[in-house]
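User: Sequence in, structure out. Go.
Assistant: Echoing your sequence, followed by the structure tokens.
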Amino acid sequence: MKDLVKRSKEIAKIALINLVLLFVFLELGSLGWYFVKNRQFFYTRDKATDTKKLGINLERVRVKETIVERLHPFFGFVQKPGSDFREGFKVNNYGFISPYDYPFKKKHKNQFIIGIFGGSVASDFSIFEIQNQIVAKYLKKLPELKDKEIIILSFATGGYKQPQQLLILNYFLSLGQELDMVINIDGFNEVALASLNYRDKIDLSMPSVQHIQPLTSLANNSLSTVALKAVLSIQDNKAKIKDAVETLKSCKLAVCNAVTSVYLQGLVNEYKKKVMIFEEERLKQDKESEGSIIYVNGLEKKLTDAVAFEVMANNWAKSSIFMNKVLSSSNVLYFHFFQPNQYFTTPRIFTRTEKKVALNENSPYAKAVRIGYPVLFSKFRNLKKNNVQIFDAVNIFDSTKETVYVDSCCHYNKRGEKIFADYVGSSIFESIKSRKK
């Protein structure tokens, strides 16, 4: 009996030592992992008060609300004004992610205001530019702008497509918004989202059915049971994400940070999957809602695919031409950039990671981009004939071997944003410089 007790104590002692050693090895491994990931030591790290600094991609993750868009009588839809997870930003009084409320008034004559128009890629671009001032560095090479304070104002929101940019521009000009330059970044939504309108027999110039339909369904109280269940599932997932973010912020040990980071990234991935399920279920329900309090124009007649994409391209080109006409009448510089997308074939060789996360042949956007981009290209000649300075950016990622796409839609990581911003900045710089010759 004594031997058994003695042996049990020895086993317990060995087990305890092994547990301590295991913990030490896990902590050391986690410290190494944290240093490689963040280029700083965990114990002396800068404490993260901003979720962006936690190392988890929370882009397009709506932690606080399921549907953040709100119907707008002029713009179609906007984001609900409130806080934003990025430090120094908010969803302003008009629903745009910006440090400022609108209309923004110049504080002094030395300020140079650039308005950014487009969809989510344009919105991301404006955020990246405010944070990194890539385009500003190119502009400051010009003698007339070298001492200017560059102010970036975003009028872009995920899901916007022409003629929303044109309408929003005119609306804010009517309110007295001052602009010295406008950068319009688009092309993808004009075919990818317009093709969903076409599929659902909604007028191609109407706001994206993918964005407007959930709002009209809520307004009409007509979401299906399956869609409502999907919303509840997303809500539950968001609560877990919020708790995990708070845990990650308060971790005292590196192993806590490592385990929570992996857990949180898994929750974020699951959240995005459930959002896609919600979209799929929502699109299954009847789009024709008799007695709807929201009126959205339908297609007046059936169109062939070829005609539909021609209409989309004409809407896109004419809207840009009119933006240029309005701005040039006030001596405001206008630059139009045709955005790159992974579904339009170029010589680019995708990384293994990109092939997994960025290429989805079942995406509703893939076919639309492959068919629609060449039709948009066919309008370049008319755009240039009407003095629109349009720049083709579809090949800008071809020479990089790094991952640049972060999802199966259209968005770029920080490396991609940097390449795109450099292209935009250098293109504008060369264009302005060439005018002086």
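User: And one key feature?
Assistant: The CA atoms of residues 34 and 394 lie 35 Å apart.
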